[in-house]
TrEMBL record:
Name used for this protein in its record: Prophage integrase
PROSITE patterns membership: TYR_RECOMBINASE (PS51898)
Keywords: DNA recombination, DNA-binding
Renumbered residue ranges of the record's region Disordered: 1-24
Species of provenance: Mycolicibacter sinensis (strain JDM601)
Top-rank lineage group of the source organism: Bacteria
Molecular functions per Gene Ontology: DNA binding
Length: 270
């Protein structure tokens, strides 16, 4: 113990060995990191209180958390899911091409729909709160955004709201209030089974909207605005694996620019 107390290298070897032993016992990387963070806070306090001179947890190499790859659907899979979803059909399309969060879609009012410009104004969201039920508030980022929809999706929405008052919900539940997320999720699960898809959630459909937009050539900033991310960095982090490797395009563009400049120079010298 005396050696560990006075030798930082010995302490670090012991901590690293302990981490490796925990990993061997089957603890996940996330659990190891969580335990380390708690211990590190205690040791930092001990240093501040002068119980110990150095934090033996400083510099410990932590395991990397596994980042699960998010699922997204193809256009054809979206169509199959929507066709199997019956009463959810229009909602599946709105989530898959508009990229709304579930609570944002549930909170849409008829007055939020601009059928001429094919835009949805996303200004509110609903959340299930214990003992209170569904509660309406602002969006996650507390910002209002305008979301474009493909013409065929807007046509479905237009049919949905035809003849209804601006203050009515676009997708009302049977009691004319918001559709509970679990009600939607249960029926979505049944539609997935009918269409041969698995583990599809409302967030999967939102992620699909971003993926399909990028695949169609939309910029990261455009997708950021579509999804309502606070920063394009968030969008980059979520969709980095889908962004194309543009080195070949960059090389070709530079070659083209140089040729144009050379040709222009030759033309001027004549």
């Amino acid at each position: 113990m005396h050696t560990l107390a006075t030798d930082p290298t010995a302490r670090q070897r012991k901590a690293t060995r302990s981490r490796s032993e925990h990993e061997a016992k089957g603890l996940s990387a996330a659990r190891v990191v969580q335990a380390y963070q708690v211990l590190d806070q205690v040791l930092r306090y001990a240093v501040r209180a002068r119980f110990i001179s150095l934090n033996p947890a400083d510099g410990i190499q932590l395991p990397r958390k596994a980042v699960p790859e998010k699922t997204s659907l193809t256009h054809d899979q979206v169509r199959k899911l929507a066709d199997a979803a019956d009463e959810l059909r229009t909602m599946v399309y709105v989530l898959s091409y508009g990229g709304l969060r579930y609570g944002e879609m549930a909170a849409l009012r008829v007055g939020d729909v601009d059928t001429i410009r094919r835009r949805l104004t996303v200004a509110r969201s609903v959340t299930a709160v214990a003992k209170l039920g569904m509660v309406e508030g602002t969006t996650k980022t507390h910002q209002t955004r305008s979301v474009p929809l493909p013409a065929f999706v807007m046509d479905l929405v237009a049919d949905q709201i035809d003849g209804r008052a601006p203050t009515e919900l676009v997708f009302p539940h049977s009691d004319s209030r918001w559709i509970p997320r679990d009600w939607f999720a249960l029926r979505l699960e049944k539609a997935c089974a009918a269409s041969g898809l698995t583990e599809i959630t409302p967030h999967t459909l939102r992620h699909t909207a971003g993926s399909l937009a990028l695949a169609s050539g939309a910029s990261v900033v455009t997708v950021q605005k579509l999804l309502g991310h606070q920063s394009p960095i968030t969008t980059m982090n979520v969709y980095a694996h889908q962004l194309p490797d543009d080195f070949d395009n960059l090389s070709a563009a530079l070659d083209s620019a140089v040729r144009q400049a050379v040709n222009a120079g030759v033309g001027q010298s004549r």
